[in-house]
Amino acid sequence: MHTAITESEERMKKTIANLKEGFAALRTGRASPALFDKIKVDCYGDKSPLNQVANISIPEARLIVIQPYDKGLIGEIEKAIRSSELSLNPSNDGKVIRISIPTLTEDRRKELVKIAKNQAEQSRTAVRNIRRDGNDKLKKLLKEGELTEDEESKNSGELQKLTDAYITKVNQVLEEKDKEIMEV
């Protein structure tokens, strides 16, 4: 297999990983520590990721418990969660923060599915752009005489198979997220 194809496959793998990461941040009706991956807390004059200043646990399907390593950060953690896009309402007892994950309304579920479909479409476009870049690289190598026409054609076919496989993966990841969002 040619390096242009290997490089393209690596980029496609990253596209799928980014899609999964984006989906993890979409709040479904289920509690998940991944919801807080993008939340930064003001900590001693610096912004730190929430998971570095507190332990996040899920004792029940709709409950998240956040236990700060330093009790003095409870207010800052609460403020960071309230000001996030998650629309969650944390409460604390001076030691831990508890967050109940409310069930999603039908409208909110449909909105989340739309967001997920949009992210998936962006990933499919990224995969197709990677294919285009790979094909451009193969054509350049053909022009420079480093590949024969047969090799270029064979590699181009391999690149198309890879593209089809990764578009299918994007669709599978979307289907799983869609199911997760719509389950009551």
Walk me through the structure.
The protein is an alpha+beta fold and 184 residues long. It is built from 5 helices and 6 strands. The strands form 2 sheets. It has a 4-stranded antiparallel β-sheet with strand order 3-4-6-5. It has a two-stranded antiparallel sheet with strand order 1-2. A hairpin with a 4-residue loop joins strand 5 (91-92) and strand 6 (97-100). Helix 1 (3-24) runs antiparallel to helix 4 (106-143), helix 1 (3-24) runs parallel beside helix 5 (149-182) and helix 4 runs antiparallel to helix 5 (149-182). It is elongated. It starts with a helix and ends with a helix. The mean pLDDT is 88.
Largest sheet: 4 strands, antiparallel
The overall pLDDT, averaged over residues, is 88
Number of helices: 5
- Please mark out the parts with pLDDT under 50 across 5 or more consecutive residues, or reply none: none
Instruction: State the secondary-structure class.
Output: alpha+beta
In terms of DSSP E residues, the strand content is 5-15%
Our Rg estimate from Cα atoms comes to 22 Å
Can you tell me the overall shape? elongated
Percent of residues in helices: 55-70%
Largest sheet, order of strands side by side? 3-4-6-5
> Between the first and last Cα atoms, what is the distance in angstroms?
46 Å
Kindly state the number of beta strands. 6
Order of helices and strands: HEEHEEHEEHH
